[in-house]
Amino acid sequence: MKKAIVIVIGAALLAAGCGGGDGDGDGGSAAVEPTAAAPGSTAPQTPGETGGTGQNVPEALRFKGETLDGEPFDGATLAGKPVVFWFWAPWCPKCIAEGPDVAKAAEKYGDRVSFVGIGGLEKDAGRLQGFVSRTSSKGLTHLDDRTGDLYAHFDVAAQSSFVFMAPDGTTSRASGPLGAAELGRHVDELLG
């Protein structure tokens, strides 16, 4: 069932607008192991479950993955702080265009908001790394989602997409491309 969902999401991503590339989602070494259903704004936390920060961990942050550098990543480490998840693919022109603005926003808000790039639906890890270099977004944490598991976990069906998550786990979403002003508006709303 899960593989079928990933395949459907992959097909939807290709049809949804960025097109091109070979982001067929059947690649690689992603070590993503979602541990909860897709996030929602209802009942975002399970009492008593805490992350490394001692904060309650919203359901959406209960996943494990791997960075593009091959390091393990636990979503629970993001608990207690607002998070901007940016879903991109290296063959997506909208993603490439907005990458520098996302990097600037991460630099501007980085002390108050965590920014996490999720590079997905691409079987070649080198293309994921190339995207990060080309978009000057090396300052962000980027997760390897070549399998599409995180896209499915967050119920994302198109790139470029953003999920803005408050510390309590409530979310809002936006589709890109988001320019600097619009991205800043969303982050300001997230901060209240």
From TrEMBL:
Residues 23-57 are annotated as: Disordered. Residues 32-192 form the Thioredoxin domain. Pfam families: Redoxin. SUPFAM superfamilies: Thioredoxin-like (SSF52833). It comes from the Bacteria. PANTHER family: THIOL:DISULFIDE INTERCHANGE PROTEIN DSBE, THIOREDOXIN-LIKE PROTEIN HI_1115. This is Redoxin family protein.
